[in-house]
Amino acid sequence: MIIMPKYKFEDIALNITQKRKPTIEDMETYIGLEHLDSGSLSIQRWGSKVPIKGDKLIMQKGDVLFGKRNAYLRRASIAPHDGLFSAHGMVLRPNENVILPKLFPFFICSDYFFDAAIRISVGSLSPTINWSALKKLEFTLPNMDEQEKLADILWAANDTKESYKRLLFLSDELAKSQFIEMFGDPFLNPKGWEVKTLGEIADYFIGLTYKPANVTSDGMIVLRSGNIQNSTLVFEDNVRVDVDVKDRLIVKVNDILMCSRNGSADLVGKVAKIPDLNEKMTFGAFMTIIRSDYHDYLFSFFQQDGFRRQLTEAKTSTVNQITKSMLNKVLVPLPPKALQEEYAGFMEQTNKSKIKLKQNLDNLEITTKALMFKNFG
């Protein structure tokens, strides 16, 4: 049996703490915790539409950006460019004498690292990891030759995962194009369909409020913005809570889950349709459930620019959220039922393809995690 050497985290990683005040130019490239997706090494969005306040961490392209605040969300990604990063995170670089740079991001994203880091979180409202405690944690690592082999396999798997995600994205783009072709721009309503307010054809509810102390390993899953990827529900990083949940806050088949509040405006409004689940689930306070007999049509309607344009016009001083009063004002053109059913048939075929892609993605994720579990710790 090979005994792997053990290292303190401060011997594995360098914690880069240099900061500076943001400039106007930094607004385009700034990365906040809201730009990091749970379980994903890649960052797909960045920037701030409002001036950035306070000193921020200086990052370089290739650094690992680690979300030390609310670490249970398991956010760690690779910096896509030089710039500034949230002071609620850490900028980490590898000690190349101990760990290969190309393996380092996978180590930080591993359950082996995150499980240990989460255990030392402090604070009740927004549990945070302090460097003073993190640097003392000890981890075992394979030798450099094994690291080289492992990194090559993990990067090949990661590239394949990104390809699957790209195909899922293109499937959604195809669905949007088909929607416009059949129904026209829902904002302009060029075909003159009957128009109703969203409140006339749907019910909607804001989600569950809970405390960090309610989080448990065997409670009910709380669906959050991180559970929506490419308009599909994913369960890569679940939060479970042990609280009493009202019946109306239990999601049902064909409910539409919408992100109604987030630090990143790009995430607000993203949706996923609830499939047939094998257990009861609820949804968080920053999410909204829309329940309607027009679920197939509305699901695609919410993904159109026409819906977002209505929200933009309805915005008040409150930014980065969709309120119930805003939804009440949304106008929905309603094509004939037969045309909606035709579109639903198209979406059924598209969703079958997405399910297969998602299964492949999930299987690859399981294999990757098993490989990291075998080689780390």
From TrEMBL:
CDD domains for the chain: RMtype1_S_Eco4255III-TRD2-CR2_like
Protein name per Swiss-Prot or TrEMBL: Type I restriction enzyme, S subunit
Pfam families: Methylase_S
Keywords (A to Z) from UniProt: DNA-binding, Restriction system
PANTHER family: TYPE I RESTRICTION ENZYME MJAVIII SPECIFICITY SUBUNIT, TYPE-1 RESTRICTION ENZYME ECOKI SPECIFICITY PROTEIN
Gene Ontology MF term list: DNA binding
Type I restriction modification DNA specificity domain mapped to chain residues: 52-156, 190-363
Family: Belongs to the type-I restriction system S methylase family.
Keyword DNA-binding: yes
Statement: the UniProt record of this protein carries the keyword NAD: no
Gene3D superfamilies, per database record: DNA methylase specificity domains (3.90.220.20)
Domain of life: Bacteria
A single GO BP: DNA restriction-modification system
